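[job 0412] stage=complex_fold ligand=2'-O-acetyl adenosine-5-diphosphoribose status=START
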Amino acid sequence: MKKRLVVSTGAGMSAESGISTFRDAGGLWENYPVMEVASADGFRRNPALIHRFYNERRAELVSVEPNAGHRGLVELEKYFDVHIITQNVDDLHERAGSSSVLHLHGELMKVRAMDNESLLYTLDKDHLETTPDTLIDGHHVRPHIVFFQEAVPNFEPAVDLVQSADIMVIIGTSLAVYPAAALLNYARRGIPVYYIDPRPASVPASVHVIAQGAGEGVATLTRELLNNI
Ligand code: OAD
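[job 0412] stage=complex_fold status=DONE, emitting structure tokens
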């Protein structure tokens, strides 16, 4: 039976595709006030601004492609039972071909009904823009994004996945945002944990740090894992 490899990814995973991270120099939160474009209060204050911010993110997303790191994780499915938990709202893991992707912070290409959280709509490639006046099936919609100040509904299933991991890998996250950053704490004691990031945050000494970008780092990880399979 294949070992279970659980991979937790952040913005650095998509950096080599050309999508800005949040907290690096030149990152998104340097140019946009985070509490205005990504918080529940901000959305109540100025929904038009938030719609516009995510319209821009969608326009960017459809112009980029998955990178070698995303593709490398798909390759690992040949040898491992790979499950990805991502903080990213892009769809690059899915477009690369990963078969199990859980989004912690929502999905950019989806919106949901304002009056019914469970009604999700995937936007059509030709209609990627929404405003506070947009109606789909008679519903006003909002970006399907977990704003700051909101609960993270997929955290529980993410914890279940991490607890079932034989190997855990973290890629491209500053480990600054909770609860996502706490996932590592749920790994079973003694399992191998890897962290790929060119500027890694501080992690326990037992974590194998691969201080490389996602593409190169996933290749390094693959070599190491296949040597120990
Ligand atoms: P950050 O912007 O906080 O961190 C990005 C990480 O990616 C840093 O540790 C970088 O060193 C690393 N990085 C940069 N280039 C890389 C590369 N080529 N390969 C691999 N890693 C690279 O992004 P996150 O930790 O993902 O939430 O941020 C978490 C959450 O904060 C996001 O999901 C978002 C944001 O607010 C929401 O919007 C809800």
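The mean pLDDT is 96.
[job 0412] exit 0
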